[in-house]
């Protein structure tokens, strides 16, 4: 099984561990944002550095939940109806497409739409009512780190540190 995240492609790279393991290597840079760490690794790649020896490690992980807005019955039911409508249309089109041999009939599409809206509203209302007002807001969660360390295998760590020092000083070569 390959575990993927927001910064991974989902493919197993050659030579990488198949199970989650702590990173290895020597620290060659530390950055306040992922974007800065990514820029550092990109700089290494642009200078013909063996970037396969590099790992970006998020340290001091935090789960940040950003509140988007207040939930009301109107928003909950509207979102449920819209979500159900999309699913109902999808099912209705599939039934219409494969249901009869004489062209597309619009009756299954209409029935799917109505049933989808009905079920979407019922499920959204049931879910929202079960919280009993304990969560009257919507939010988006994100995993972030306090800092991002760039690690490198010992065989290339000194050269990597020198290159990143040049990047920090603003010299190109």
UniProtKB/TrEMBL annotation:
Short name of one Pfam family: YflT
Entry keyword annotation includes Transmembrane helix: yes
Organism: Prauserella shujinwangii
This protein's record includes keyword ATP-binding: no
Protein name, per record: General stress protein 17M-like domain-containing protein
Keyword set, alphabetical order: Membrane, Transmembrane, Transmembrane helix
Biased composition (Polar residues): 1-11
Domain General stress protein 17M-like, chain residue ranges per copy: 28-101
Disordered as annotated region, ranges: 1-22
InterPro entries the record matches: GSP17M-like_dom
Membrane spanning residue stretches: 76-98, 104-125
Domain of life where this protein originates: Bacteria
